Amino acid sequence: SSTFLRGDQTYAEAGGGSWTLLRSYEGTGNSVSNIDFNTASDFTSTSYAAHVFVIKQLYAYSSNDGFASNLGMQVFTAGGIQTGSSAYQYVHRSDTTNGVADTGQSTGASEIRINTPTQNGTNSNDNRYGAGYVWCYNLPDSKQSNFNIQYSYNKDQSVTGNFVSLTGMGLYESATSVVGIRFKNDQGAVLRANIYLYGIKITWEME
């Protein structure tokens, strides 16, 4: 059956929630420095308990063709893109397949950092990529917005053990509604990706 009987003896869909595809960016053949999701209605609707970005086949290259760029996030509010030097906080930990661990953190940054700098390689090799999820909470509310990050990427496929798994979180410090998200290449160089934005609805709750 696709429904469950609730405590109040009414029926609801199984699973407790549903994912709605709100917006997508498919640009692995494009070269941009920023990818913006800034259709306000995608974020301001109170129908969604959370938002999730699914990142697929992301490439972030520096100006010297090395895979050496940081991937970051910033938010849009009613006042536009927020780039203040202390607007964000973040912390993350990364582990490589050869056992090397690293951490990054900031209590006052101009972006939420998703990955640490990587080196080597050329942008002609499509096996060097990143993929993962960014979970977003409290975006339509006048509260601080929270982000949970799960991300993995290949630093250099020619070096054994250079596949990286990263987990982290970020915070936009101002208590205001968020109306958009920007993914950015720190060096303003090449950013190519397929990214999908979903809204998660809660269809039933235990009473």
Give the gist of this structure.
With 207 residues, the protein is mostly beta strands.
Fold blueprint:
Layout: E1 3-5, E2 11-13, E3 17-26, E4 34-37, H1 41-44, E5 50-61, E6 71-77, E7 80-81, E8 88-96, E9 101-109, E10 112-113, E11 130-137, E12 145-154, E13 163-172, E14 180-185, E15 190-202
Antiparallel strand pairs: 1-2, 3-15, 4-14, 5-11, 5-15, 6-7, 6-10, 6-14, 8-9, 8-13, 11-12, 12-13
Mind explaining what this structure looks like?
This protein has 1 helix and 15 strands; from the N terminus they run ββββαβββββββββββ. With 207 residues, it is mainly β. The model is unreliable at 64-68 and 118-127 (pLDDT under 50). The strands form 3 sheets. An 8-stranded antiparallel beta sheet has the order 3-15-5-11-12-13-8-9, with no helix packed on it. Strands 4, 6, 7, 10 and 14 form a 5-stranded antiparallel beta sheet that branches. It has a two-stranded antiparallel ribbon with strand order 1-2.
